[in-house]
Design goal:
Elements lengths: L1 H22 L12 E5 L22 H19 L3 E6 L7 H15 L3 E6 L13 H15 L5 E4 L9 H14 L8 E4 L1 H4 L3 H5 L7 E5 L10 H12 L6 E5 L17 H16 L2 E8 L8 E3 L5 E3 L2 H10 L20 E3 L5 E3 L12 E3 L9 E3 L5 E3 L3 E4 L5 E4 L9 E2 L5 E3 L2 E4 L7 E3 L9 E3 L4
Parallel strand pairs: 1-2, 1-8, 2-3, 3-4, 4-5, 5-6, 6-7, 7-8
Antiparallel strand pairs: 9-10, 11-22, 12-13, 14-15, 15-16, 16-17, 18-19, 19-20, 20-21
Length: 458
């Protein structure tokens, strides 16, 4: 079936090249900076064989309930962040179904509030091969969506999220066929994903068949381990080429729940990455649709649901940096805020590895270990005036048979001193990593496994 659709799409290529070139001119190079948005995501990362359901919604919700919830979410994204765009997932198991009758309310509520909405197809969790799962079902899905929202000037259509299974030529052909099938939709409301994991727009940007469309780019800090903004700028720039004026970065994000200070750019992978991302977007007038605005269980989520049902921001410095990338303000956020110190690594002398909270856990009682130094927020510690050592800005190192993280109490088991001998000492002993992995409290001996360097990485 996939071979058949590729052949059909390629067959449509020649006719659309002629008709499409006459129909649409390239957008003037003013940029896409009016897309200031967030992704509202299913807790499963939008990959699902069944219906996609953004966090906070349920398939049991009727249209009115979804509309009320979405209105609250969109309003909070606007008030908290300054967002005006919402990106939502769709799939054939959602569109044209009983859930679709309710899910449409999220689109309707957002557009009624004046937001732009980007609808993007996600493949099922059973494949994840970067190819359309079932072309017939995919076409029927888009036929339904375009029939209902093709005349709504605030709704944009992205044929597929992260089409990494296609070659450039095949992906251009898929989009050419999509344009031909939905010819009444202006090209300026069609968003063509970059090749690979949406990670490069230069190929689709250069394709004459796709002239006049918008482009989308994804860019993440876990793709590399650089801790300097300059390195991330060098990584990002070639992915955009000369097509920034057409490109929306419709997925990009970093940990927002672990206490990182995004005003401190160099020295940490996530903060350096985010600084480069926002600087590039601002300089090239590119829109950013942050991943995710809300997704339950995701440390990247820039908001969470408060006790009153409204959204609260998870990182003041992260929000400030994102808003800078969106074009707000005249002065870039800096590391001058003492309430959000950048933290520093603790490098074990014997192993050359860093004190680490496994898996970015925030659960009290999680035992610390050693891991390769990577500049992550789970390896970033602050020495507080009350004698505690904090990670994520809210968890304290706690002495015991294992050294763990826990709610800060200021008790004796959370009091630490960095000694002249470069030990991390508690009244009950010293921080020790005797096997190069597990971190324990042991009698102070001055052994290399008990000595640490602060603020340095090998």
């Amino acid at each position: 079936m996939r071979s058949l659709i590729r052949a059909v799409a390629l067959g449509a290529l020649a006719s659309v090249m002629l008709a499409g070139a006459a129909q649409a001119k390239p957008p003037s190079p003013v940029g896409t900076s009016d897309f200031r948005g967030v992704n509202w995501a299913d807790p499963r990362d939008n990959y699902a064989s069944d219906a996609v359901v953004p966090s906070g919604l349920s398939t049991a919700d009727d249209y009115r309930t979804v509309y009320r919830t979405a209105t609250r979410m969109v309003g909070d994204f606007r008030r908290n962040l300054g967002a005006n765009t919402l990106r939502l997932p769709i799939n054939p198991a959602s569109v044209g179904t009983a859930w679709w009758r309710s899910y449409r309310a999220a689109i309707d509520a957002a557009t009624a509030a004046g937001d732009k909405v980007i609808l993007s197809y996600w493949e099922a969790d059973t494949s994840k091969d970067g190819l359309i799962d079932d072309v017939g079902a995919w076409n029927r899905m888009w036929d339904t969506v375009v029939r209902e929202y093709g005349r709504n000037s605030r709704v944009y259509f992205e044929a597929m999220n992260e089409p990494h299974g296609y070659t450039l030529e095949a992906w251009v052909a898929v989009n050419t066929g999509f344009i031909a099938r939905h010819r009444p939709v202006p090209r300026g409301r069609i968003v063509v994903s970059g090749t690979g994991y949406n990670d490069n727009v230069t190929g689709v940007g250069a394709a004459p068949e796709l002239r006049g469309t918008l482009l989308s780019l994804h860019f993440y800090g876990f793709w590399a381990s650089d801790t300097a903004k300059s390195a991330w700028l060098a990584n990002l720039t070639p992915r955009i080429g000369s097509y920034g004026y057409r490109t929306i970065i419709d997925e990009a994000g970093a940990p927002m729940t672990i206490g990182l200070n995004y005003g401190a750019h160099d020295g940490n992978t996530s903060t350096a990455y985010f600084a480069a991302l926002t600087e590039t977007a601002r300089a090239q007038h590119m829109g950013i649709v942050y991943w995710p605005g809300l997704r339950f269980g995701d440390s990247y989520s820039i908001t969470s649901v408060g006790a009153d049902g409204h959204l609260v921001n998870n990182s003041a410095s992260g929000v400030a940096q994102l808003r800078w990338g969106w074009g707000f303000g005249t002065t870039e956020p800096t590391n001058d805020d003492p309430a959000a110190p950048p933290g520093e690594a603790l490098v074990n002398t014997a192993s050359g590895r860093c004190l680490d909270v496994p898996g970015f856990s925030t659960t009290d009682g999680t035992g610390l270990d050693l891991w390769d130094c990577n500049g992550g927020g789970n390896q970033s510690y602050n020495w507080e005036a009350d004698g505690t050592v904090t990670v994520y800005g809210s968890k304290c190192l706690t002495a015991g048979d294992r050294v763990t993280i826990g709610a800060c109490t200021g008790a004796a088991d959370q009091q630490w001193t960095f000694t002249a001998q470069q030990t991390v000492a508690n009244t009950a002993g010293c921080l020790d990593a005797p096997d190069g992995g597990t971190v324990v409290l042991a009698p102070c001996s001055g052994a290399a496994t008990q000595t640490w360097a602060r603020g340095q990485t090998p």
